[in-house]
Amino acid sequence: MLALTENVTEIVKQLTEEVPAMSGVRIAAEPDGQSLSVTPADQAAPTDQVVEQDGATVYVDGAASELLDDMVLDGGVDEDGNIQFALGQQA
Predict the structure, then answer these.
(1) Residue 70 to residues 3, 13, 36: CA-CA distances in angstroms?
(2) d(C-alpha 28, C-alpha 47), whole Å
(3) CA 86-70-83 angle, 5° bins
(4) Strand partners, 83
(5) Neighbouring C-alpha atoms within 13 Å toward the C-beta of 81
(6) What is the pLDDT of residue 4?
(7) ∠72-73-79 over CA atoms, to 5°?
(8) I need a labelling partner for 37 at 20 to 30 A (CA). Which of 8, 28, 50, 91 fits?
(9) Residue 62 near residue 49 (C-beta atoms within 8 A)
(10) What is the spatial distance between Cα 36 and Cα 11, in angstroms, rounded to a whole number?
(11) Any bridge partners for residue 57, and if so which?
(12) What pLDDT, in 10s, does the model give residues 32-79?
């Protein structure tokens, strides 16, 4: 199952506090099968895997969950306020 770093949990919690209609973020596999998208979400889709950690919720669609099974999601905010996500292998 996808793991979340402390950085990502803080980013997702802050986003959900700032946007009341948002309950988490959703990671989905793009149609090309080579890339992923991260978007705000208000709820899980029927086939989503739900990852909850330290008050943060990340929904992962079925295709993406297979790709991310042994991965760690990290993130940060750059000097312009843009959120950036990165994946790493679980230890």
Answers:
(1) 8, 23, 16
(2) 11
(3) 15
(4) 77
(5) 2
(6) 95
(7) 140
(8) 91
(9) yes
(10) 18
(11) 52
(12) 877 899 999 999 999 999 999 999 999 999 989 988 989 999 999 999
